[in-house]
Each structure stands twice: as structure tokens, then as C-alpha cells.
Amino acid sequence: MSFFLAVFIKFFFIMTPFFVLSMFLSMTKDLDDKETKNIAIKVTVAIIVSCMIILHFGKYIFDLFGITLDAFRIGAGALLFLTAVDLIKKDVNEKISCPVDISKNAVVPLAIPITVGPGTIGTLMVMGADMKSFSSLAIGSFALICSILCVGILLYMSGHMKKLVGGTGLIVLMKITGLIVAALSAQIMFTGIKNFLGL
Q1: pLDDT, tens digit, for every residue of 79-107?
Q2: Domains of the chain: which residue ranges?
Q3: Inter-residue contact 54 to 124 (CB < 8 Å)
Q4: What b/e sequence results for 76-100 when a residue is b if at least 16 CB atoms lie within 10 Å of its CB, and e otherwise?
Q5: Crossing angle of helices 158-197 and 33-65, rounded to 10°
């Protein structure tokens, strides 16, 4: 249970849910409630499919390119740190340039790369490679799906969330998420450096 909870929390925060929520609100502000909820469902399904592929098959990419897990930890941690810095600096009211028909952009850019960005992809690949037993991979996959569904619920209830926390609340949540993601990225990099140097 503790492993599930730890993986769930880590996955939830690396997807920067409150940043995703703010971007989703910005991109769907001209749509009615029904259209917004339909897009939230499409985005959630796209995230689940892409993340499960990365989690389960990322280790084969290591073998294909001859990349060590620790080298990838360092690279993924660096990318995740840049995501955290961008999250802290980002303006919640920043306008997103996209076509008018946002329903065609549920996968790109809403799912990838806004939700599943380079930092998230790198972290998923590292965690997938770390889960060597079937049981840990099964629990990790279930935790990943649960965390994505939580993000999906946030998007589905985006209208209520905006009323509940307001614009200022979203900014505060984004900054807090950025700090947590920065700490996660540092931990991933430190683990990679420690193992690489044999400390």
C-alpha cells in the first residue's frame, strides 16, 4: 500500500496537474460545458495510453540506444527541473496559440506535450525501468492510471474548480506544484549521479 501511495503521489505531481488545469481552462474558455467535458475525457484517455506505453516499453529504448539507467536519470531529472522552473515562472493567464477547433487538439497539445512533457516522459521511463518485478509493475501501472484519472477529474470539473479556487488560487497551486516537481527532479538527478559515481 505504501508503494502504491508513493508511486501515485509521484506520478500525480510529475504531470503538473494544476498547470495542466490552468492551460486547459485557457484553451477551452470559449466552449460550453458539454464540449469541455468531452474534451477532458479525450485528453484523459490519450494521457493513459501514452503514459502506459512509455512506462512499459521505455526500457527497450534504453537497450536500443545503449543508454544506461543512471545516465537517463540525470537527463530526465534535468528536464524535469526545467519543467519545474517553467511552471513557477509561467503566467496562469498566458494565452495559448491554437486552432479554433480545440476538439481536434485533445491529444496534441493538451495531452502531449502539455500534460506528458519531456520531464514526465523521462521520469516514466526511469520508473518503468526501476520496476523489475511483475507485481511492482502492476502496482505502478495501477497507481499511474489512478493518478491520471485524478488529473482527468480535475479537467472534467474544471469549471467548478475555477469557481472554487479562483485565478489566484490556481496560481498558488501551480507554484506549489512547481516546487514539488523541482524536489522530485533533484532526487532523480542525485540518485543517478550517486549510482554513476558508485557512491
Answers
A1: 888 878 887 887 655 554 444 455 666 77
A2: 2-197
A3: yes
A4: bbbbbbebbeebbebebeeeeeeee
A5: 10
Angstrom distance (rounded) from CA 52 to CA 121: 11
Peptide bond into 113 cis (omega under 30): yes
- CA dist 105 and 114 (Å) reads 11
Task: Please give the residue that has the higher pLDDT: either 162 or 7.
Answer: 7
| Side-chain half-sphere CA neighbours of 85 within 13 A | 7
pTM of the full structure: 0.78
Grid coordinates representing 173 are: 497551486
H or E stretch at 102 = none
Q: In this structure, are residues 47 and 136 in contact, taking their beta carbons and an 8 Å threshold? A: no
Cβ-proximal residues to 102 (8 Å cutoff; 6+ apart), any chain = 27, 28, 31, 39, 110
What's the N-to-C CA distance of the chain in angstroms?
Answer: 30
| Confidence label for 70 from pLDDT (cuts 50, 70 and 90) | confident
